Amino acid sequence: MGATVNLKKEFPSVLDSAYTQYKRDLSRFKEAKEIMSKDVVATSPEASMEEAARIMGNKHIGSLIVKKYETPIGIVTERDLLTKVLANGKDPAKEKVEDSMSYPLIKISVTAKIKEAARMMMRSKSRLAVFDAGYLVGVITASDLTRSLPEVPETAAKVDDFMTKKVVTANEETPVIDIAKTMGKQRIGSVIITREQQPLGIFTERDLLTTFLAKGKALNSAVGKAASSPLVTIPKGTSVHVAAATMAMKHIRRLPVAAFNKLTGIITARDLVEAYAK
Questions:
Q1: Distance between CA atoms of 138 and 102, rounded to whole angstroms?
Q2: What is the CA 160 to chain-centroid distance, rounded?
Q3: What domains can you pick out in the chain, each with its CATH number?
């Protein structure tokens, strides 16, 4: 009998390449149940938006499933709070969840592949409720998908093609309530905070929930001290995959894009999902 051939030694580049591709392919076929958030937090249609905001803020989440008689009927999000309540000068304590929630729920099966989930999210422009045999078992957000984006040709695209090029800014002395109204009216999730016209940090809808609404803190205080600083940025020309990895590592959902020490845009988790869903 001939000597045993060591394939790894004889054809290292071929095997390494094949294994690398194998690992990449594995991530393509992940299912909804592998990436979903399993801790589903719910509220009722009769609850006030103030109560909903407090729950989201305390739990550091951006949405609540709305249940009536234990049946999931809709979802209310931090964006609903901004655009339908605060931006219109309404009092969250007097507004009911049922008047601001989105319905019906956008449902997806636990066995759906992540590509299907990404495309469904982009079509519906909503978080996804994951069901197994008729029972709600999880929720998929843009951040959940971003943490699982595979390294494939779609995610090799540059963030330049998907980022929002208009960067909304505000001075550090601006009252938080004004920032909230700006985000709500423009349907954006963050504002870059400046000092002497230079970027100081970023204030997001999640900051509004966790730092202010969840604690009952007055919204007339200056935004500067509540902004996340220093600002985490990525250079123009960064790939979607690298941007997704950066978000996952830093536990953030938005990345300002810079070129020659100047902000040229901002990319969000939802933008990255859109790139993958193409």
A1: 17
A2: 18
A3: 32-140 (3.10.580.10), 153-277 (3.10.580.10)
Cβ atoms of residues 128 and 120 within 8 Å: yes
Do the bridges between strand 190-195 and strand 198-204 make them parallel or antiparallel, or are there none, so unpaired? Answer: antiparallel
17 phi, psi to nearest 5 deg = -65, -45
Are 33 and 130 a contacting pair, CB within 8 Å?
yes
Q: Are 100 and 43 in contact (CB under 8 A)?
A: no
The amino acid at residue 136 is: L
Which residue, chain included where needed, has tokens 């030694």? 9
Instruction: Compute CA distances 9 → 20, 174, 253, whole Å.
Output: 17, 64, 43
Q: What is the pLDDT of residue 164?
A: 95
**Closest by alpha carbon to 43, among 25, 22, 59, 28?**
59
pLDDT attached to residue 260 = 87
∠ at Cα 242 (238, 243), nearest 5°? 75
C-beta of residue 75 within 8 angstroms of C-beta of residue 127: yes
114 token code pair: 């992540």
Band of the pLDDT at 24, cuts 50, 70, 90? low
Question: Tokens 């400046």, residue?
Answer: 194
SS (H, E, C) 48-95: EHHHHHHHHHHHCCCEEEEEECCEEEEEEEHHHHHHHHHHHCCCCCCC
pLDDT tens by residue, 120-167: 999 999 999 999 999 999 999 999 999 988 887 878 899 999 999 999
Place of tokens 């869903």: 277
With beta carbons less than 8 A apart as the criterion, state whether 137 and 110 touch. yes
Calculate the average pLDDT of the chain. Answer: 90
